[in-house]
Each structure stands twice: as structure tokens, then as C-alpha cells.
Amino acid sequence: MTAKIISGVDTAKAIRAELKQEIAELKEKHNVVPGLVTILVGADPASQSYVTAKEKTSKELGIYSERLDIPAETTEAELLALVDKCNKNDKINGILVQLPLPKHINEAKILYAIDPTKDVDGFHPVNVGKMILGEQCFLPCTPHGILEMLVRNDIKTSGAEVVILGRSNIVGKPMANLMLQKRPGGNATVTLCHTRTKDTVFHTKRADILIAAVGVPKMVTADMVKDGVVIIDVGVNRIGKTADGKAILAGDVDFDAVKEKASYITPVPGGVGPMTITMLMKNTVQAAKQAAGIL
Ligand code: L34
After folding, report:
1. Up-side HSE of residue 170: CA atoms within 13 Å toward CB?
2. Does the reported pTM lie above 0.85?
3. Of 119, 121, 208, 252, which is the active-site residue?
4. How many CA atoms, within 13 angstroms, populate the side-chain half-sphere of residue 148?
5. The domain containing residue 72 runs over which residues?
6. Confidence of residue 269 (pLDDT cuts 50, 70, 90)
């Protein structure tokens, strides 16, 4: 079997077209313009490229955007003060502090300082708690994007054996939780594997849907999966540079070999990444509507 490629670019394009329309209507009917601020501490090239994409997409869709790039030496107190300023700024509906932060800054402390009604990343404990309870909240962008990819490509998750590799707060943990909920893209039986899992391959081999979010290039090989598996590759690993200095990317999955066994597979680049950015836009629109009392 050769897999059908699930294009994150195409799925994202469809959602962005819907959002663009919705944003135009918000402006026309309610004079509401959603606003997003991105805060980047330091100059990590990968983070810079993600923040640039977020800012560019905001502008394309008609979202008001502010970009705050601040030095790596910024203190925790200074960053907290900046977050507080954004919390109080009415033009801003969504606040995104790009992770990872420099080691001298306590990540949790910063994320907890973001007003939960502006927490478009869905990382604040209030939103994490609501997510687990299945209440209305901001869903974290990468898992949210993966759910949309599954649903919009008609991949059946109900009753499916879903195996997730990686237990991060950004991807693995929320992904596992969302997929076991009674919701579109949910109702699955979920197994979450991590570095202490006794026999990871035992699990990957019986997965109907395998989601890899470990940050190890090409870790998932063809012999680890069954025929017809659906592969969602979250890894964006920089494995080298081209002659003209561009990063060479690889996912967590050995794409060329695994695509011969899978029924569906997401590529890297052009898979989950563009969906993450798009769901940030969707969350920002949701935040603006909630702030304006529009349901
Ligand atoms: N606060 N920090 C916060 N929120 C997030 O949701 C993120 N994440 C992760 C890192 N830190 C964060 C992102 O935005 C990862 N991430 C992210 C976003 C977009 C892409 C990859 C990771 C993406 O668009 N990747 C492209 C390739 C881009 C490139 O050339 O580097 C792709 O097609 O996969």
C-alpha cells in the first residue's frame, strides 16, 4: 500500500479561507478586529521562523498583529511586566509567548501570568483543566490542528487504537486527552508511550493511528508499524543545512519507508506545522468574539 498524503498546507488553506471570511464579517457587522501579540525572547532561528509565519498569517487574514522580539537577557520580572501590559491592552485578544524560553526564566510562571481569556495557546492551567473536563476553552494549537486534519480528511477515530509517542505538555498529554473524549476526532482508545515505556514497538505495531511527537529524526521505521496505519508526524527536526544555508527538516517518522505501509501519512514539512499556526488564528478569532460578547 502507498499512503495517501494528508497535506497540512491544503487543510490549513481551507480553514484559513473560512477564517478570513469570518474576520471580514466581524469587522463589517461588529467593528471587531481580532488582535494577536507574539512575544519571542532571544533569537533561536527555529523559533524566529515560527513566529514570522504566525505574524505573516495574522496579517494575511486581517488579524491585527504585534510582534515583540526581546533580548535573551530579558529578566523574568521584565517579561512578567510585558505580559501584564498585554493582558491590559484592549486591542490584544491573544497573547503568545513562544517556547522554549531561556533557562533563567520559569516557563510556568510566565504561562500562568497570561490572562486565561487571552491564552490562545491553551497552556494556562484554567484552559488545561477545562480541556480535560470537555468544557469550552482554548485548545492547544498542535493537538487542535491534528484533530482538524483527522476530521477533515474523514479518518475514523471512534474505536480506533491510537498510539501517541511523547508526553509533552504541548502535544502528547493534551493529544491523548482530546482523543479519548466524546467529540469529533475523539472516542479512541489511547495509549501514550514515553521514554520509560517497556516495549514501545509492541504498541506501535498495533496502532490504527500513530502520532509521533518525540523530536527524534526518523525514529519510527517501517518495521514498527502495521499495514494500513494512519501516521501523524509532529516532529520538525533540523538535521542539516543545504549549500545555501537553508535548514533541512525531517520528521519523527522515516517517511519514505513508512509511506509504503501506511494508508495515510502527514509529511514534514507541510504537515502538522501549518495546522498549528492556523489553529492559533482560529483561537485568536474565538478570543476576540468572546471579548466582544459575540457567540
Ligand atoms: N507558545 N510555543 C508556543 N506555542 C506553540 O504552538 C509553539 N509551537 C512549537 C514550539 N513552540 C511553541 C509552534 O508553534 C512548535 N511550533 C511550530 C509551529 C509551526 C511549525 C513548526 C512548529 C511549522 O510551520 N513548520 C513548517 C516548517 C517550518 C520551517 O521551515 O522551519 C512545516 O511545514 O512543518
Report:
1. 17
2. yes
3. 121
4. 28
5. 30-115
6. very high
